[in-house]
């Protein structure tokens, strides 16, 4: 074996071992070196040497003494969550939102910028960089080194290259997101589809942390899904896995932004709910939503519909229930195809738990095969208002803590 190849293999193995040890400390800390050796199956000398390096970088710190089984008490190790700062970005059609966090994934500072209609590639990248710069400045003011930037991007994304490929709602193609940000900020940048990033957030901090196979469905300006099998995201050769919003549910349905007719998104996205409400209002249906909605699917539209339902508005409750039924039909198909243990529903309408989730669950139970439908649990996300940004932050954490094959 050539010496350069041997050196590369040793470096790769050491990096893998370091990630294994870091992840063991993250998951089980405070933890002793001996326990790390047992969990990772690495030799005690290997653990000792790598831990020494981690202590030097201050990403790991020694905490309390552990219980002794006879002899000297072991020194316990834990992650120093404040040693680095990260930036998480959700880059959508109408707005770009960036947040800061330490290694615990808890959001600290937030910046949100609007994206003008029909923004050019240069405009979009400029707004993205501006949002990131404002958050990075806040991190640097606190005197904390920047570990990396994670971006959850609307549409099709090639995470290997860090490229945004295409999105019908955005009308942009082939944006070099990673390259653009790494050139400006000189730190590693991870880029992923927004719903797949969200699924990673659920896997680390939410309802997906105790299951290996789950589906995350996001309902917002668009509708998408992310599939996690055996703990790993499913991308597909064209990075289009999970585009549930563009599956057909009605061959005679409305025209979708993708050019197809009757896509799920035309019945379940927030703009589609606004459209159906406006149609009912024009027909003379009485509702407290009269005058509250612009008809353009503004960012707060979903919340306004839920608020109306909470006030007892019949139209709002009917629209949410209809949305739940359409989602349930599509999710029943996914249950039959993939047999997930959990489906997590995310988005601004998840507050409408009973009005939307109950009809959704009933449709899944009615239409999916009895065995998989009986085994699946359908739950709302609990990551909160920063769910998408937490997902983007997780991309950075995943790079640090999870070994790469």
TrEMBL record:
Keywords: Carbohydrate metabolism, Kinase, Transferase, Xylose metabolism. The keyword Zinc does not apply. InterPro entries: ATPase_NBD, ROK, WH-like_DNA-bd_sf, WH_DNA-bd_sf. GO terms for biological process: D-xylose metabolic process. The keyword RNA-binding does not apply. GO terms for molecular function: kinase activity. Belongs to the ROK (NagC/XylR) family. Transcriptional repressor of xylose-utilizing enzymes. This is Sugar kinase. It comes from Paludifilum halophilum.
